TrEMBL record:
It comes from Poecilia mexicana. The keyword Transmembrane helix applies. InterPro entries: MFS_trans_sf. Coiled coil: none annotated. GO terms for molecular function: transmembrane transporter activity. It comes from the Eukaryota. It is a multi-pass membrane protein. This is Solute carrier family 46 member 2. It is found in: Membrane.
Length: 467
């Protein structure tokens, strides 16, 4: 009797969204480390006239990632919108199953590049295939939509952060082992084959789970208001007549603006961070790269704990400001990192940096009825795509041009933009903050402006130092 009950419990767990998140994230963390090390190895002998070998390698690495990431940002836009539309029409698994197919093909592509010694540029074609499947732009809103459907509006922020927690813990585990797996050999095929084989198998298993086992929870059509109450609560009991009727568009615009600026700052810094740790004085190995990626994934865990702690005394809006301040301080310290230990100090200061985005997603999802939740979250993801299209070339070129005199300049710029991104959140919730946020916490915004000077003064000091 115990065995059938245990099997039923296991089957029920496998039908949830969490196993999909675990398998996909494990495969992705292994793939990310493998791609980073393969690119480093393939660009080791590149030289350019008038530049050192390290500068030439850094330029080649950043140019590869700039092109690769731009493809990933641009190609999923239309497919993601189509998949979101299908999701809102009842095909809830479409934004998950289709992107997972792209994940599998892209992992298989890098495995073939390593095994057969194919040109690294073939990964651009793999990126196109990945993008046409909808990519992360379709997959993550699809995951968040399924998670939202099983929760009330009041608990939605906690539910989304729990999803982020599972994502982060899995990322820590995958990253910790990825560097060690990369160094394992498979016959005479070289480094990375074992790592990429495991990554491909995990993504295949994830796709099978999504197609055969994943269960979609039904929305309670009798109480649609629960899913779209407004941030200001002014029209909480007003039933929507259409997609945008009754929505406080000012708050929506401010939330989207804050998400755009914050993603611009975070994404721009992370865009070059992978290349930054491969150059001297850090010069990380594959194992150290895995540990560094694990530190980044660990921020998911600390951010989740931060939400549990802060939500007892402050509102969602204040949690967003705290998270933004955490990233601004940590990435500012990253500007001056010269040792591995100082790198981890900077990452430690980022411990709440992932609170803002899932909280903003939760607030956005509360603006619309459940039937439009998928398209709303996808529109937010598309806004972040636009940010990526801008910050990828911008931060890459700034990093390349400042590589010889101040490679940490991009991190300082990211810190300043993060502070600016706090302004829309502050204005969107000013009245609510005056009613609910203690005076000491209301000073956070003012203090961060005092700690970090405006962009103009930072630029002026940099010009002065350079002369």
């Amino acid at each position: 009797m115990a065995m059938p009950s245990l099997c039923q419990a296991a089957f029920a767990v496998f039908r949830q969204i969490e196993p999909i998140i675990v398998l996909e994230q494990l495969g992705s963390t292994l793939f990310d480390t493998a791609l980073q090390m393969v690119v480093r190895d393939r660009t080791a002998n590149i030289t350019e006239p008038g530049h050192s070998s390290e500068e030439s390698q850094q330029t080649a690495i950043t140019n590869f990632y700039m092109t690769y990431n731009l493809i990933i940002k641009l190609t999923p836009i239309i497919p993601a919108l189509v998949l979101a539309s299908l999701s809102d029409r009842g095909w809830r698994k479409a934004p998950i199953v289709v992107p997972l197919s792209g994940y599998l093909l892209s992992r298989l592509g890098l495995l073939l590049v390593v095994i057969f010694g194919l040109p690294l540029k073939l990964m651009f074609a793999a990126a196109v295939v990945f993008g046409l499947s909808g990519g992360f732009s379709a997959y993550w809103p699809g995951v968040m939509t399924l998670a939202s459907l099983g929760s009330t509006a009041a608990d939605r922020s906690k539910v989304m952060m729990r999803v982020e927690l599972v994502y982060g813990v899995t990322g820590v585990v995958g990253s910790l082992v990825s560097g060690h797996l990369f160094l394992l050999y498979s016959s005479s095929l070289g480094n990375g084959t074992v790592l990429l084989s495991v990554s491909t198998l995990l993504n295949l298993l994830c796709l099978i789970f999504a197609v055969a086992l994943l269960q979609v929870k039904r929305v309670n059509s009798e109480d649609p208001e629960e899913s779209y109450h407004l941030l200001s609560h002014a029209s909480r009991y007003t039933r929507l007549a259409g997609c945008f009727t009754g929505i406080n568009m000012v708050n929506m615009v401010l939330l989207f603006a804050a998400a755009f600026l914050y993603d611009f700052a975070v994404g721009g810094a992370i865009e070059v961070l992978g290349s930054f740790v491969l150059k001297s004085p850090l010069s990380w190995t594959a194992t150290q790269v895995g540990y560094g990626n694990a530190a980044g994934c660990g921020i998911f865990v600390t951010s989740f704990l931060g939400v549990i702690m802060f939500r007892k005394c402050v509102g969602d809006e204040t949690m967003i400001l705290i998270g933004m301040l955490s990233f601004a301080v940590g990435i500012y310290v990253m500007s001056f990192v010269t040792t591995t230990s100082l790198f981890y100090v900077a990452r430690l200061l980022n411990l709440f940096a992932l609170i803002p985005m899932p909280t903003i997603r939760a607030l956005v999802s509360q603006q619309v009825p459940a039937s439009r939740c998928g398209i709303a979250l996808t529109c937010l993801q598309m806004t972040l795509k636009v940010a990526g299209i801008v910050y990828i070339p911008a931060f890459t070129k700034i990093y390349q041009n400042s590589l010889t005199w101040f490679p940490g300049l991009v991190f300082m710029i990211s810190s300043v933009i993060t502070v600016i991104s706090m302004i829309p959140i502050r204005y969107a919730t000013q009245k609510a903050a005056e009613r609910t946020i203690p005076g000491a916490l209301r000073l956070i915004f003012v203090l961060c402006v005092c700690v970090f000077p405006p962009a103009s003064s930072v630029a002026g000091r940099l010009r002065g130092n350079s002369t």
